[in-house]
TrEMBL record, chains A, B:
<comment type="subunit">
    <text>Homodimer.</text>
</comment>
<keyword id="KW-0520">NAD</keyword>
<dbReference type="GO" id="GO:0051287">
    <property type="term" value="F:NAD binding"/>
</dbReference>
<dbReference type="InterPro" id="IPR019818">
    <property type="entry name" value="IsoCit/isopropylmalate_DH_CS"/>
</dbReference>
<comment type="function">
    <text>Catalyzes the oxidation of 3-carboxy-2-hydroxy-4-methylpentanoate (3-isopropylmalate) to 3-carboxy-4-methyl-2-oxopentanoate. The product decarboxylates to 4-methyl-2 oxopentanoate.</text>
</comment>
<protein>
    <recommendedName>
        <fullName>3-isopropylmalate dehydrogenase</fullName>
        <ecNumber>1.1.1.85</ecNumber>
    </recommendedName>
</protein>
<comment type="pathway">
    <text>Amino-acid biosynthesis; L-leucine biosynthesis; L-leucine from 3-methyl-2-oxobutanoate: step 3/4.</text>
</comment>
<feature type="site" description="Important for catalysis">
    <location>
        <position position="141"/>
    </location>
</feature>
<keyword id="KW-0028">Amino-acid biosynthesis</keyword>
<dbReference type="InterPro" id="IPR004429">
    <property type="entry name" value="Isopropylmalate_DH"/>
</dbReference>
<keyword id="KW-0100">Branched-chain amino acid biosynthesis</keyword>
<dbReference type="GO" id="GO:0000287">
    <property type="term" value="F:magnesium ion binding"/>
</dbReference>
<feature type="binding site">
    <location>
        <position position="96"/>
    </location>
    <ligand>
        <name>substrate</name>
    </ligand>
</feature>
<dbReference type="GO" id="GO:0009098">
    <property type="term" value="P:L-leucine biosynthetic process"/>
</dbReference>
<feature type="binding site">
    <location>
        <position position="106"/>
    </location>
    <ligand>
        <name>substrate</name>
    </ligand>
</feature>
<dbReference type="GO" id="GO:0005829">
    <property type="term" value="C:cytosol"/>
</dbReference>
<comment type="similarity">
    <text>Belongs to the isocitrate and isopropylmalate dehydrogenases family. LeuB type 1 subfamily.</text>
</comment>
Length: 367, 367
C-alpha cells in the first residue's frame, strides 16, 4: 500500500483505544479494500520504560516518513517525578514541533443522542458544532529563553518566553479562514492584546489578514478571558475560534467539556502542504488524556480514537466517503443506546470498550 | 474620619454602579455613623480624555495614600485604536502594580435565588462557593523583556516574558492557605508544569509550602487545561483555587460565568500587610467590565459594585457586621424577585439600576 500509517498507542488507555480502532482499520481493509501499511512505535511513558526517553530518534524519523500518525495518549502518575525533559508529554511535544504540525483542529460538537450528557442546559448545547483551531508549534510551549535560574538571594526564578512572528500568525490565520469557508463563515480570533505584546501583534496581523484574504467572512477579535465566559454562556455564537498554543490548550478543553462528550472528541494536527507533492505531515489524536485510573479495565471509550481515525481518512487521504461511513456507524450505535461508562446515562445500556467496537463493526457490516 | 476612600468610577457603567454604591455609603454614614473621607479620581478612558493618560501620577499617589480604593470599570470601543500604553486598561494595571496588590480574591458563588440563571444544570451549581485566588502583580502581565521587534526579513515578532520567583509564589501560597483555613480546607494549585518552566517552579514551591505550612489542609496540583474542564464538569469539587496572573484571568472569568450571576460578583485586590501599622493597600472592583453597550441607560446591575464595597468593609476596615448587613439586604431584595436586565428571569420583576438601589436602601432601613 502507498498509505503509510504510524501507530503510537502510548500510555494508559491509549493502547486500548488504539487497539479497538485498529479493528476498524482491519474491517476497512477487508470490506472496503482500503489497505494501510501499518507500523507501530512507542511514545510517552511506554517509550521511557523501554528506552529512557519519551520518543526515540528512530520513532521520530518514522513519524516524518509516515503519511499519517495515529496517536493514543501519554502520561500517568508513574512518571510524575521524572525530570521535565524525560516526562511522557515531551514525546508528544517533540512530534508536534519536529513535524511542524502548526494547525491543531479541535472540533467541539454535541452528538444528538448525547445532549443530556452536557453539564449545560440542553437548549444551550443542542446542535453545538464549534471548531477550535489552535496554533500548535509556537508560543510559550517552545520559545526560548526558558529555564529556572538561581537568584543572588538564594531563591529561584522560573521563566518562559511567549512569542509569535507575523508568518506564524498568518499561516494559522489562513487555515482558520479556509475552515470557516467550509463551515458557517465566522472566525473569532482570541488573544490578550490588552496585556501581551504577542497579543497586540496577533490582533494586528489577523485583522489585516481578514481585510486582505477574508472576503465574505464574518470576523471578530476577542480577549481570552471573555472567550472563556462566552463559551460557557452561549457557545453556539461561535463557528471557528483561532488562537495561540496556550489559550488554545485551555479553551479547547473548556469547549470539549461543554459538549459532555469528551470521550468522543477527535483532533487533527496538520503541517503545511508541500507545494510539489501536495502532502503534509499529520497526527491524529483524541482530545481526552491517558486516564490512568481506568486503564486496563476494559472501560475506556474508543470513540474519540475512532473519530480521530475518521479525520485521518478525510484530511490525509481524502477518503471522505469512508470517514462518513464510520461516523454514521458510530452515530447509529449511540442512537441505539449503547454507552461506555464515561457517557452512561439512565435508560442506556452500559458496555465495555470491546463490546462498543463489536457493535460498531456490526453496524458497519449493515451500512 | 480616619477612613480614607479613593473612588475611581472609570468608564462605561462604572460611574453608574459606583454612584449607586455611594448611596449605600451615605446610608452607612447617616444610619450607622460609619463615615468615610471620600475622594474621587479619574481612571481609564475618562482619565485619558481629561489628561491624555489612563492614570495620572497624582491619582496614583492618592491611591497609595488611601486606606482603600473603590474601583468601577475601564474601557470602551472609543479607545480601541489607542496605542497599547495609552489604553484604559493601563490605568488599572498600573494601580495593581504600584500598590503591589498581589492577591486578587475572586469569589464565585451562586446566590440561592439565582440558581436558574446559570447555564449549568441547577444541581451542578446550587450552593456553589469557590474562591479563585489570582496572583496579580507578576507573570506575563508585567515581566520584561516584552515588545514587538522587526525581523531581518521585514516581518515582526511580538514577545512577552512569563516568570515567577520563589518569594512571589510563596506569598500568594500563604494567602491561599489562610483563606482555605477559614473555608472548607482545600487548596488546588493550578499551572502548566508539564509545559512551562515557571509552572515547574510554581508546582515545586507550592508543594513544599503545603508540606511546611499547610498542616491540616487538603492540597492538589492541577494543570490549567484540566482545571477549565473540571470547572465546567463539577465546579463544587473546588474550595480555593490558587493560580498565576494569566490563568487566573481566564479561569476566574470562566468560574464567574458558571454562576450565572456575573453582574453580582465582587473582587478584592490586596497588598501585603505592613508589619508595623497592620495596614495594607487594597482595591475593590466588580468582576464584570465596563459594558459600554448598556452604559448610560439605567440598566446596569449595581450589586457587584455594592458587594465589592462589602468586601472593602470586611477586609480593609474589619467591619464584618456592616458588610453582613449590606449582603443580607441584597439577598432579601433578590429573594423578593427584583432583577436588573442582566439577571432577569420569568416571573421576576425587571427594575432599573436606581430602583434596585432604592429597594436595597429600603431593605437596609428595615433590617
Ligand atoms: C499533554 C500536554 C502537553 C498537552 C498540551 O498541553 O498541549 C495536552 O494538554 C493537549 O492539549 O494536547
Ligand atoms: C482589563 C484587563 C486588563 C483585566 C485583566 O486582564 O486582568 C481584566 O480582564 C480583569 O480580569 O481584571
Amino acid at each position: 500500500s502507498n498509505k503509510k500509517l504510524l501507530v503510537l498507542p502510548g500510555d494508559g488507555i491509549g493502547p486500548e483505544v488504539v487497539g479497538e480502532t485498529l479493528r476498524i482499520v482491519d474491517w476497512m481493509a477487508k470490506k472496503r479494500s482500503v489497505s494501510f501499511d501499518i507500523e507501530e512505535g512507542l511514545v510517552g511513558g511506554a517509550a521511557y520504560d523501554a528506552h529512557g526517553t519519551a520518543l526515540t530518534d528512530e520513532t521520530m524519523t518514522d513519524a516524518t516518513h509516515a503519511d499519517a500518525v495515529l496517536f493514543g495518549a501519554v502520561g500517568g502518575p508513574k512518571y510524575d517525578d521524572l525530570p521535565f525533559e524525560l516526562k511522557p508529554e515531551r514525546g508528544l511535544l517533540r512530534l508536534r514541533k519536529e513535524m511542524d504540525l502548526f494547525a491543531n483542529l479541535r472540533p467541539a460538537m454535541v452528538f444528538p443522542s448525547m445532549v443530556e450528557n452536557s453539564s449545560l442546559k440542553p437548549e444551550l448545547v443542542s446542535g453545538l458544532d464549534i471548531m477550535i483551531l489552535r496554533e500548535l508549534t509556537g508560543g510559550v510551549y517552545f520559545c526560548e529563553p526558558r529555564g529556572i535560574e538561581d537568584l543572588p538571594d538564594g531563591s529561584k526564578r522560573g521563566f518562559d518566553t511567549q512569542a509569535y512572528t507575523t508568518p506564524e500568525i498568518e499561516r494559522i490565520g489562513r487555515v482558520a479562514f479556509d475552515l470557516a469557508r467550509k463551515r458557517r463563515g465566522k472566525v473569532t480570533s482570541v488573544e490578550k492584546a490588552n496585556v501581551m505584546m504577542s497579543g497586540v501583534l496577533w490582533r494586528q496581523v489577523m485583522t489585516a489578514l481578514h481585510a486582505s484574504e477574508g472576503e465574505g467572512l464574518e470576523y471578530e477579535n476577542m480577549f481570552a478571558d471573555n472567550c472563556a465566559m462566552q463559551l460557557v454562556r452561549t457557545p453556539k455564537q461561535f463557528d471557528v475560534i483561532v488562537t495561540d498554543n496556550l489559550f488554545g490548550d485551555i479553551l479547547s478543553d473548556c469547549a470539549a467539556m461543554l459538549t459532555g462528550s469528551l470521550g468522543m472528541l477527535p483532533s487533527a494536527s496538520l503541517g503545511a502542504e508541500d507545494p510539489t507533492t501536495g502532502k503534509r505531515h499529520a497526527l491524529y489524536e483524541p482530545v481526552h488524556g491517558s486516564a490512568p485510573d481506568i486503564a486496563g479495565k476494559g472501560m475506556a471509550n474508543p470513540i474519540a480514537e475512532m473519530l480521530s481515525f475518521a479525520m485521518l481518512l478525510r484530511y490525509s487521504f481524502d477518503m471522505g466517503e469512508d470517514a462518513d461511513l464510520l461516523e454514521k456507524a458510530i452515530d447509529n450505535v449511540l442512537a441505539g443506546g449503547m454507552r461506555t461508562a464515561d457517557i452512561m446515562a439512565t435508560g442506556k445500556a452500559k458496555v465495555s470498550t470491546a463490546t462498543m467496537t463489536d457493535s460498531i463493526l456490526k453496524e458497519l457490516d449493515k451500512l
